[in-house]
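INFO  loader      accepted 1 record
INFO  loader      residues=405
INFO  predictor   begin
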Amino acid sequence: MVRRRTILRNGSTIAGSLALPGFASASSDTAASRPDDFLETNGTSFSIGRRSHYLSGTNNFWLADVWTTRDEVDAALDQAAALGLNTVRTWAFCAGREGHCFQPTKGEYNEAAFEHLDYVIEAAAKRGIRLILPLANNWGAYGGMEKYVEWSDTAEEHDDFYTDPEARQLYRDFVKKVVTRTNSISGIQYTEDPTVAMWELGNEPRAQQKGVDVLGDWIKEISGYIKDLDPNHLVSTGMEGFYNSDGDDWLRDGSQGTAYVDHHRIDTIDACSFHLYPDHWGVTPEYGTEWIEDHVRDARQRVGKPAYLGEFGIQVDRDASDAEQIARRNEIYDTWYDRLDDLDADGGVVWQLTLKKRAQYDDGFYVFPDDDRTTRRIERFANRMDAKSGRPLHADQKRRRTRHD
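INFO  predictor   done
INFO  writer      dumping tokens
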């Protein structure tokens, strides 16, 4: 059998040397940056090739969106790479939408959508960026779990997604279709490509109707199923990190049907996922700092696995063009990034760095390239995580860091 690293190196040479559709010619430095070792865990830390690794990244769901062009993919990933980010989280799901959605109708798959994801993976690989890929959505956007419920003859409500045999099988079929796919550009099976950092079972799964035990059973089943299909990659929940305890607020009292500690203790879950949105949750940014502290501590001391902040954001009123709001956001991001660093957390992935042409869709959480005061915070964190991972800064990164500091 040919070793996968041989395949990957050959694949990067092919992708880097041929003028593939949509690809700009890559320099030898870019081609050489393709990931060739899988993200792993070492106790309560991430590692790559036996060296500690910290995630610095951004979300960008637009990358895998059905209407995003390849040029836009390249521009967005160039933007992330220019800031020194090593991780991008983007959707690997779409159900019931028109266009080249992954699964536009029940049980039917659209090859064009999968070829677009192939391109996203290859474009990330060329830049040395790894991807976190959620496989379903708790929310209605891009179909969501309720689309599987709608397609089932026996399911009726959202949480039937976790228990209804037909809905579960439809989801398992889709998971297998994605996880075991062979990339049409590189010829590398997804299971053999270290560009995929981690699979997430879903984006922010909750079981508010059926409760913690039902969600726990589903997490155990599906994470085990993915591990059977793909023993090379890490698997996490993609959850927001709500507790099931005696807390005196809805984030901690179990009402969301999630249990941060118990659900991440499941053997086939490799890392602890949590998110942070004070503006949406009705709490203060100071509570957000406490949220970070609690989740990193509990991941280390009670679960024994790495913890990464998979989404976080402070909302800005773009219509008001209020410099004070942006200054407030930046101050909060500085505090959170510093706390992640001080606690030696395993990663922070902001929501979300994206292209200026998406401004019309901005909900106040978007970070654009010309938001220099915010992007420099993101870049500083990336530089710090690279230093902790033992990777020297590239010359252009050193120049940017000097300029920003």
